[in-house]
Design goal:
A hairpin with a 3-residue loop joins strand 46 and strand 47. Among the domains are: 318 residues, no CATH class; 78 residues, OB fold (Dihydrolipoamide Acetyltransferase, E2P) (Beta Barrel); 83 residues, Beta Barrel (OB fold (Dihydrolipoamide Acetyltransferase, E2P)), CATH 2.40.50; 84 residues, Beta Barrel (OB fold (Dihydrolipoamide Acetyltransferase, E2P)); 206 residues, Nucleic acid-binding proteins (OB fold (Dihydrolipoamide Acetyltransferase, E2P), Beta Barrel); 84 residues, OB fold (Dihydrolipoamide Acetyltransferase, E2P) (Beta Barrel), CATH 2.40.50; 74 residues, Nucleic acid-binding proteins (OB fold (Dihydrolipoamide Acetyltransferase, E2P), Beta Barrel); 84 residues, Nucleic acid-binding proteins (OB fold (Dihydrolipoamide Acetyltransferase, E2P)), CATH 2.40.50. The relative contact order is 0.02. The chain starts with 11 loop residues before the first helix and ends with a helix. The chain has 1936 residues and is an alpha+beta fold. The protein contains 50 helices and 75 strands. The strands form 14 sheets. The protein has a 5-stranded mixed β-barrel with strand order 1-2-3-5-4. A 5-stranded mixed beta barrel has the order 6-7-8-10-9. Helix 43 runs antiparallel to helix 44 and helix 43 runs parallel beside helix 45. The longest helix is centred in the C-terminal third of the chain and has 30 residues. 25% of the residues lie in helices and 27% in strands. One of its GO terms (molecular function) is RNA binding.
Length: 1936
């Protein structure tokens, strides 16, 4: 693309060279394969690739306008020669032989090279096109973002190329520095897919995967794209791209890539306002609006519409560097090329458009006809190559409008019916794919058309034909799909990455092999990686040998993450038929699958499955032999079959096992931690001993070396002598590791196996437990017990001397005694102390185990020799006198030999010679002191004291000596403290003699469990030591007397060294001096003697348990005198050994108490008062300790009477509190008592209390302590339905019933409203009755003023209108005419029963329910309603009471009523409450009277009201004017128009407060309380609808209908059906007062006419009230002649005839009426038809057929819709459900556009069922016109509220309010319905939403007013003030 086309060099010798090239040289339409490189044979030498050219004068060879040094003739000759060569090559292509090597198409090369550098003369044949061959660094391209990643962007470039932009290249450095380092997702928040961007090529990297397709690295930096831009070059109207550099208050500063100028964009710009948040670094495109050259600022406008239409102006002297991709230009067609169009633009430039960028996306073969020369078009620059000055343009309609083409297809999609638009000979096909929503162009290359080579494409495919194509890819910039027609590709299951699934077996071709693995390609073209470890089952050194490029192999897909697919060629995985595990959710327990090992640790193997799923197989599940290393059996990469044992998908954990079929053992037979088993040695390893165990479920176990013995030296010695086959009779199961047991042979653990804890809950504070050290660190030691239960001993708690190193003091595996300091169950941490001062041994187990193991080792050493050899030791018993011969004298003593045992030697130290002089060879008699069987050595003594008894005589014989020794030991007692003398000092123990016991020989260890590695104390022969006897000689002690040195506990016994010397044998009854070591809430811990611990229970401090805090006078360290009262229980022996007492009477008693103290009898009598201390409190019980062993329970409801105290139950009884109570029952076996706090007298039948002493302690049901008149605490257990009252719990299993009449002090409506289950109450017991079967029935009352007169407070609460009503208890208290109150018990067809008291019911006959007619007794008198009536009769014997609700006497009432009527005068203003709402008016009860007046609908308001119920509600206070008083008929006519009320100035009304109180209490005024009328439902409303112009006539008929009810029972409710069309609009009129004056003027005439009509109605009403109704046929004839058009009169006439039983006459009157009534009076005629329907329905034969005939006739004379509705009303009223449903089905089809009809359908469904309404509503909304939707939905919602499901009604209102939030009429209706339901919280929440709307002031005023009225009638002063305050806030905010 350059200026006019020039040849760069036109010398003739070049022309000659070209002519000699034999056709091989390139011509003008052919470029070399190495584009941009100069060729000697080239006619044109393009410039070498250079950086972006900045100035035009760098091209000096030709002027901008073009030019050449060749003459015209020379140029023509060159062109002719080139054309001849090209044609020859084309012929050669056609003659190419099949199977021969394909010759590279020259045309392809022509398209591959770029031109534009001064070409003139003959035009090129092909348009410029970007390919991998000709793209070069420095080239500017227009692209579209196709992917946005965190670190880079993927750009779709022209020609389907793909470029990458790294994050540093996406933003200019100046802008990047403004972005905070903390911000993440920098690229995704600033760029989006589909965004068009200009970019510049940075470099090309060779892609190893695809040769010839380099990676294209791009930059979006404006500093490169706008290089050379100056402020002078920028013109107004130019489109520029800029970065947002910073965000200011009023706009954004912009960066154009040049430091010399900047930009600014205002925030109120249209494009910026509506878009998402603008961020620093974001690219914005805008039009230059204004240039401030002084401040060097360009002001941009970012209006998208303007930007897309802005064309670059033809500027003088514009250089190629100022051209930017994406710039729109006006261009002119210069010529058409073979594959595009050449355009000229901006005067100096030419560019080409290739075939894929034309205006039409589907150019056919005649596309050139659309581009005539000089045709003007708008185009955008697609690319610019500064090196060749080539420019590409686009005419694509989407790109021209600055939008990326849409993408409606995805790779892999198959389209069966794609149309061939164009066939490009030798190249491919252009198709039109029928994608949705619009079709997409697709191009299929000739190589993708068929499996075999296609020679003549145009013959095989014709334009217009249809083919089946599969989408290969998509060129995002062109909006062009690439396709393939090959059959193999269409059928290939793997075509795109999305088709690849983990576990899929595929065949793929190897395309590259490297050190990291092989790259393979599926048949569909998708590539995958086979890692080197997955290329073979085993590791291969040279992958390239097996994997040859081009080979096809079978693989299995391992995973596919994003677009990276990995496969395996491992044979086991590929051929595996087991299930595929590709997600953690698929990991089900027991699943067996294949995986491969990724890592091997000592504790197990990590296994990988498909899609990155990983699991772990612990060592125990690897199937290894004990002691075997996993790495020797398995290797990384090995495929293994494994079984899932457990999985946690949420935490992505899978536990595996290589053992596919585990052995199953029942839980009962399973070996548990801490159990003892036997085992046989299998083999000895370096780490321990492997044994065969005798346990179910396990075959082998391991004994670690350190667990072979408690002594360090013995463990290694034992291991050295063990041989396979040796049997361990007792081993402790220390831990279970899978199928392997970890065992211990330590006797310290085995002997205390039952006490070893395996769980933290089994550990108790301050106890000493055996364990072993499992780890040592600098800061402390880890001590392990059973399993993995581990404690930690900090450094300062490990040793008494803090200076020693722990590693020098302890060793791993050492047996230790640990003192529990803390056990935190929440954190699972255990802190222990290993200090010898607190963990010293209290027995001789340490040395006992030493001697036993020593003997065992000796036996094992001599196992190879004959067993008789071991018998020598039998003759060397300890203390025996033996004869021997002095064999040798040494420095330390003499050696003695024995004649009988040649290999056994004795040794006598110098100290043991006792001063005797012996000679070698002499015979001696010596005492055996010690025997070392392993060394076959005996220690002897010649000291004379061993031979002399206390009597001074010498022993003459050995038998006497033995006897003396036995007697000496017999004198010793266990735990006796003795003085001993050191005879021999051994390495690990001392041989001692006890002089005070005939020099008995004993043995004591010099170290303890915890001090094995501590420095030993130095002992000398003859040294005197203090020791305690721990074990007498026995086989378990190897026949030795075992002692314990008191120096072992010197650290703790320094203060009591004197006491330690005393005799230390204790028994029950002994007095001891003890030191307090710990004070707890319920016990004192003490220590005494040597290592003895005891406790004093809280009940053992004082004689009578009267002190509140018995331990307050004691302190830790204090010494006290206590008496041992018993041994501790077995479960407590680990904490203490003795139970002590500090009671004064115990200390002063005799010491000879003995075992009497050990047992406690439960010797308590019923009712006895006792005291104890609280030791536990749960939710229901207080547990009290009475003594050490006797406990008591106090039930929650026995602890108090007041509910407030019962609520604080647990707080009132802290642990340690003294509690006094009375014994209710005893359980001697469990030593358990039941207490109650208050004293009680046993009820009859329990006077002797014998049956209260029961074994099972379940005597609570009898309620022995409950008596009539008692006040008890209770808890509501259940609220019984109806008038059942309450079920109240008063004991653990004792319940009482509160009668409905006993709930409140005085009778109130709904007495249950204040109670809920679980509530505490204070009850009075009214009656207790016990049946023979043992059941107890208790009657309770929540009333405490049971004398019949309510207390003052209760009277205030109830505020009843009948304070004189006395609460009746006995029937004798009733008398006729007495006023009584009661609740409705049940209602029947004959009347109802009411509750007068707990034992008295009364009946009310139906006729006595009201002065008036009761239409629906079940509705008016629901169960539980409070009634006030008068007693009619009382029958005390039969206990029958009859009550009436009528006022006192009919005649008296009539008289009173008449008198009351006389007090009322026409024109009076009265106040009252609405009693009933009918469609024709309101019935109003006049305050302070029992009179009811009617306010007709026409007198309600000056404006027309369509729906009364939405405006008024029953119980509402109103003010009205008396219009008429008819004393004769007792009728009062009222009016409520504003004009009436305003005319009167002196109106006296009762206070608002009084009326409100009255209505709150009774729901109606005083004298009308006995009769309640239900408000009309919407159905009732619908039955009174007036339509048409003459609808007012019907109002007259309605007024007259009140005069009497004719026998025909033709209710005018059936005259017409409801028209609620105006329901919403009427509310709107009520709210919207801001109407224009024109509308008011239009309404005035209508209003006047309406008022005149209402005057006529009133006159008619008065006339009918004054005149009597006709009573003969003649009188009716006169009346119909005077009012021939009045349907009311005709219907009365028909009714009269029916009352005379003349049906035919009634029919004839109906026919006359239909003939006589004027044809214009359509509604009057309709009324007659309705009456006719009712007549035939009642008297027709058959009725259904007769009605149908009348109906067919009526359809001809009246509006069919009205007739249908009239018939429907009649069917509904007479409950003909089948006919009703059939008619409605016809109507919704016939009148599907009628809202009224659909509403009737909805109403009908709601009557039948409340659940099937939604389908009808959906049908209706589809059928009804749009403008009727609001009305239909709102009225359906009202129906739901009134007779359906209110929640559905709410949903409907919420739905339309979301769409029309400012329709206050809808808000008003919604609020009215919620107010009617009465849920205060919902109503107030709805009001709050409504007043928060942004509406016109008048509408808001209406909402606030409505809210205020509601709070005035339902809220308190605080709520009213709150609404007023919110209204004021609204006003203030509006004014502000």
């Amino acid at each position: 693309m350059g200026a006019k086309k020039n040849f760069k060099d036109g010398e003739k010798k070049q022309k000659k060279k070209m002519s000699k090239s034999n056709g091989d040289g390139p011509n003008i339409n052919k470029a070399s394969k190495q584009s941009f490189k100069p060729s000697n044979d080239a006619v044109f030498k393009p410039k070498p690739q250079q950086p972006l050219q900045l100035e035009d004068d760098e091209v000096p060879d030709f002027p901008r306008g073009g030019g050449s040094s060749l003459s015209q003739q020379e140029r023509e000759e060159i062109y002719a020669e080139v054309d001849a060569e090209f044609e020859a090559e084309q012929r050669g292509l056609k003659k190419r032989k099949k199977g021969g090597k394909r010759v590279t198409r020259k045309a392809d090369d022509d398209i591959g090279s770029l031109f534009g550098d001064g070409i003139t003369g003959k035009l090129p044949r092909f348009a410029n096109k970007i390919t991998f061959k000709n793209i070069s660094p420095g080239m500017k391209l227009w692209g579209v973002i196709s992917e946005v990643n965190e670190k880079d962007l993927v750009i779709g470039l022209p020609g389907g190329l793909r470029g990458l932009v790294r994050m540093p290249d996406a933003l200019d450095p100046d802008v990047k520095s403004e972005i905070t380092d903390m911000e993440s997702n920098i690229l995704p928040s600033r760029f989006h897919v589909g965004q068009l961007v200009s970019c510049i090529v940075l470099r090309l990297d060779d892609d190893k995967k695809e040769i010839g397709k380099p990676k294209i690295w791009l930059s979006l930096r404006l500093s490169l794209l706008h290089k050379g831009f100056t402020l002078d070059a920028v013109q107004e109207g130019m489109v520029l791209t800029a970065y947002v550099k910073s965000i200011e208050d009023h706009g954004y500063t912009l960066h154009f890539g040049s430091p010399s100028f900047s930009g600014f964009l205002l925030k109120n710009d249209q494009a910026v306002c509506g878009e998402i948040e603008v961020k620093i670094g974001q690219l914005l495109q805008g039009v230059v609006g204004r240039i401030d050259k002084v401040h060097k600022v360009i002001y941009l406008s970012c209006d998208l519409d303007t930007v897309s239409k802005c064309v670059t102006k033809d500027l003088k002297g514009i250089s190629i560097d100022l051209l930017v991709p994406g710039m729109m230009v006006n261009a002119r067609v210069q010529s058409t090329l073979e594959n595009g169009v050449m355009l000229s633009f901006l005067t100096y430039f030419t560019g080409t458009v290739d075939l894929f960028h034309l205006q039409n996306s589907y150019p056919n073969s005649h596309w050139k006809d659309d581009y005539n020369k000089n045709k003007k078009v708008n185009a955008r620059i697609l690319f610019i190559d500064p090196s060749t000055r080539a420019i590409g343009l686009t005419l694509n309609s989407h790109l021209v409008h600055n939008k990326a083409p849409p993408s409606h297809v995805k790779s892999g999609d198959i389209y069966d019916d794609s149309k061939v638009v164009r066939v490009d000979k030798g190249w491919g096909l252009l198709l039109e794919i029928q994608s949705i929503p619009v079709s997409t162009p697709a191009y299929v290359s000739i190589s993708d058309v068929a499996e075999e080579e296609v020679r003549k494409l145009e013959k095989k495919f014709k334009e217009g034909s249809h083919v089946r194509v599969r989408v290969l890819g998509f060129r995002h910039l062109e909006g062009l799909a690439t396709g393939i027609l090959k059959a193999g590709a269409l059928e290939d299951p793997v075509f795109t990455h999305s088709d690849v699934k983990p576990g899929m077996v595929v065949r793929a071709k190897i395309i590259a092999v490297d050190s990291f693995g092989a790259i393979v390609q599926f048949p569909g073209g998708v590539k995958a990686l086979c890692p080197v470890q997955h290329m073979s089952e085993f590791e291969i050194a040279k992958p390239g040998k097996k994997f040859k490029v081009g080979a096809e192999l079978v693989f299995r897909v391992l995973g596919c993450k994003s677009k990276r697919i990995t496969v395996t060629h491992k044979k086991t995985l590929v051929k595996s038929k087991l299930g595929i595990l590709s997600s953690y959710a698929d990991a089900t327990d027991g699943l067996i699958t294949h995986g491969w090992i990724t890592k091997i640790e000592k504790h197990g193997c990590f296994i990988r499955f498909y899609n990155g799923v990983q699991g772990f197989a612990p060592r125990s599940e690897l199937g290894l032999e004990p002691g075997c290393d996993p790495s020797t059996m398995y290797h990384v990469g090995q495929v293994v079959k494994c079984r899932i044992t457990s999985s946690l998908p949420a935490s992505r954990r899978i536990n595996l096992s290589f053992i596919i079929k585990p052995s199953r053992v029942s839980e009962e037979d399973m070996v548990k931690l801490g159990s003892l088993i036997s085992a046989v040695v299998d083999r000895v390893t370096t780490n321990g001993v492997i044994v065969y165990v005798n346990a179910k479920g396990y075959s082998k176990g391991t004994i670690p070396t350190e667990h072979l013995a408690d002594h360090h030296g013995h463990a290694t010695l034992m291991k050295s002598v063990l041989k396979p086959g040796y049997e361990f009779d007792r081993l402790l199961v220390l831990d279970i590791s899978g199928s392997n047991l970890v065992l211990s042979a330590k006797l310290s653990l085995i002997n205390l196996a039952e006490q070893l804890p395996s769980d933290i809950s089994q550990i108790h504070h301050n106890t000493v437990i055996h364990g072993y050290i499992c780890n040592l660190i600098e800061t402390g030691c880890f001590v392990r017990f059973l399993g993995r239960l581990t404690g930690f001993s900090p450094r300062n708690k490990a040793t008494d001397d803090q200076r020693v190193e722990l590693s020098e003091s302890f060793y791993i595996g050492q047996s230790v005694r640990s003192n529990i300091l803390d056990a935190n169950t929440e954190s699972g941490r255990i802190t222990v102390s290993l200090k010898q001062s607190s963990c010293f041994s209290t027995d001789a187990s340490f040395i006992q185990e030493y001697f036993l193991l020593d003997e065992k080792i000796a036996n094992l050493q001599l196992l190879d020799t004959e067993g008789s050899e071991l018998k020598w030791a039998e003759g060397f018993s300890i203390g025996n006198v033996i004869e021997g011969k002095i064999q040798e004298a040494k420095d330390v003593g003499v050696v003695v030999s024995f004649e009988k045992y040649r290999d056994v030697f004795g040794f006598i130290t110098h100290y043991q010679l006792g001063g005797a002089i012996v000679e070698i060879g002499s015979c001696v008699r010596a005492i055996v002191l010690d025997v070392a069987k392993a060394e076959r050595l005996v220690d002897l003594s010649l000291k004379p004291e061993f031979f002399v008894d206390h009597r001074g005589g010498s022993s003459k014989s050995q038998s006497q000596k033995k006897k003396r020794k036995r007697e000496a030991c017999k004198d010793l007692e266990v735990h006796q403290t003795v003085n001993a003398i050191v005879e021999i000092v051994k390495e690990n123990y001392l041989v001692l003699s006890v002089p005070e016991c005939n020099y008995a020989i004993g043995y004591a260890s010099v170290s303890d469990y915890n001090t094995q590695k501590f420095p030993r104390n130095q002992f000398l022969n003859g040294q005197s030591v203090i020791a305690t006897v721990m074990a007498l000689p026995s086989p378990s002690t190897s026949g030795r007397l075992l002692l314990l040195l008191n120096s072992m506990s010197e650290a703790t016994e320094t203060s009591s060294s004197k006491r330690a010397k005393k005799k230390s044998s204790y028994k029950v009854g002994s007095l001891v001096q003890a030191e307090i070591t710990e004070i707890k809430s319920l016990e004192l811990k003490l220590k005494f003697g040597i290592g003895f611990h005891g406790r004093v229970h809280i009940t053992e401090v004082n004689d009578d348990n009267v002190l509140e805090d018995p331990f307050s006078n004691f302190r830790i360290g204090q010494t006290v005198t206590a008496r041992i009262v018993s041994k501790a229980n077995r479960s407590d022996k680990r904490n203490y050994q003795w139970e002590l007492s500090l009671k004064p009477k115990m200390l002063t008693g005799s010491s000879d108490i003995g075992d009497k103290l050990t047992t406690e009898d439960v010797d308590f009598s019923i009712g006895q008062c006792i005291t104890g201390y609280v030791f536990k409190v749960d939710s229901e019980w207080v547990w009290v300790a009475i003594s050490r062993d006797v406990r008591a329970q106090l039930f929650i409801l026995d602890s108090a009477r007041e509910p407030s105290e019962l609520k604080e139950f647990q707080k009132r009884f802290p642990v340690g509190k003294a509690v006094s109570g009375h014994v209710l029952s005893t359980n001697k076996e469990k030593k358990l008592l039941r207490l109650v706090l208050s004293p009680f007298a046993l009820s009859k039948g329990h006077a002797n209390g014998e049956d209260l002493e029961v074994d099972n302690h379940v005597n609570e049901k009898c309620g022995a302590h409950i008596n009539e008149g008692d006040i008890v605490g209770g808890r509501v257990s259940k609220i019984l339905s109806g008038v059942g009252g309450l079920l109240v719990q008063i004991g653990p299993q004792l319940y009482g019933r509160v009668h409905y009449m006993e709930l409140t002090e005085s009778l109130v409506p709904d007495p249950l409203s204040g109670y809920h289950e679980g509530q505490f109450v204070k009850c009075k017991v009214l009656e207790v009755s016990r049946s023979v079967k043992g059941t107890t029935h208790v009657d309770l009352s929540l009333r405490f003023s049971l004398d019949g007169t309510p207390s003052q407070s209760s009277a205030e609460i109830s505020n009843t209108l009948h304070p004189a009503c006395k609460h009746v208890e006995q029937i004798e208290e009733l008398h006729p005419n007495m006023v009584v109150q009661g609740y409705v018990k049940n209602i029947t067809s004959k009347g109802c029963f009411i509750l007068l008291s707990r034992k008295i019911d009364a009946k009310i006959l139906l006729s006595n329910l009201s002065d008036g007619f009761v239409d629906n007794p079940e509705k008016d008198f629901p169960v539980g309603k409070l009634l006030v009536g008068r007693v009619l009769s009382v029958e005390p014997l039969s206990k029958r009471v009859e009550v009436t609700l009528k006022t006192l006497g009919a005649s008296r009432a009539q008289k009173s009523e008449t008198n009351d009527l006389r007090t009322l005068h026409m024109g009076d203003i009265i106040s009252g409450r609405i009693k009933r709402i009918e469609s024709y008016g309101l019935f109003i009860t006049i305050d302070n009277t029992n009179l009811v007046g009617l306010c007709h609908v026409s007198e309600l308001s000056s404006d027309h009201i369509d729906n009364i119920e939405t405006k008024y509600r029953v119980g509402e206070s109103v003010t009205a004017k008396i219009l008429k008083v008819d004393e004769q008929r007792h009728r009062i006519s009222l009016g409520m128009k504003n004009a009436y009320i305003e005319d009167s100035d002196d109106i006296e009304l009762p206070s608002k407060q009084e009326s409100d109180e009255a209505i709150r209490e009774n729901g109606s005024s005083d004298d009308t309380r006995l009769v309640t009328f239900p408000g009309s439902s919407l159905i009732g409303l619908q039955n009174m609808d007036i339509e048409g112009e003459n609808g007012d006539c019907l109002v007259l008929a309605q007024v007259e209908s009140r005069a009497s009810i004719p026998p025909l029972e033709v209710s005018l409710e059936d005259i017409d059906q409801p028209d609620m069309d105006n329901l919403v609009s009427s509310n709107q009129e009520q709210i919207d007062e801001a109407d224009t004056m024109n509308e008011k003027n239009k309404r005035r005439p209508k209003k006047k006419a309406k008022e005149e009509r209402e005057q006529e109605i009133r006159a008619a009403e008065e006339r009918l009230l004054e005149n009597d109704i006709p009573r003969t046929a003649d009188e009716f004839e006169k009346l119909v002649r005077s009012s021939p058009n009045s349907s009311f009169v005709w219907i009365k006439y028909m009714a009269f005839m029916l009352s005379m039983a003349d049906v035919e006459k009634a029919r004839s009157i109906a026919e006359r009426a239909l003939q006589i009534i004027n044809i214009r009076e359509e509604n009057e005629k309709l009324n007659i038809w309705v009456a006719y329907f009712n007549l035939e329905n009642e008297y027709g034969n058959p009725p259904e057929e007769a009605v149908r005939k009348v109906f067919q006739r009526a359809l001809q004379y009246n509006d069919p819709k009205k007739v249908h509705l009239a018939l429907l009303g009649m069917y509904e009223r007479t409950e003909q459900h089948k006919l009703t449903d059939e008619l409605l089905d016809k109507m919704v089809k016939k009148y599907k556009h009628s809202c009224k009809v659909w509403l009737r359908r909805v109403q009908r469904i709601l009557k039948q069922t409340k659940d099937a309404i939604q389908p009808v509503v959906n049908r209706a909304l589809l059928s009804l016109p749009r403008h009727k939707h609001i009305k239909f939905i709102s009225q359906t919602a009202i129906l739901e509220f009134k007779c359906g499901v209110p929640d559905r009604g709410r949903s409907m209102f919420e739905g339309i309010l979301r769409e029309y939030p400012k329709r206050t009429d809808l808000w008003s209706i919604y609020l009215d319905q919620e107010i009617r339901l009465g849920d205060v919280d919902v109503i107030r929440a709805l009001f709050e939403r409504a007043i928060s709307l942004s509406l016109p002031t008048k509408k808001m005023k209406f909402l606030f007013k409505k809210y205020l009225e509601y709070e005035k009638s339902h809220g308190d002063e605080e709520r009213i003030e709150s609404v007023k305050r919110k209204a004021m806030e609204y006003v203030e905010s509006t004014l502000a």
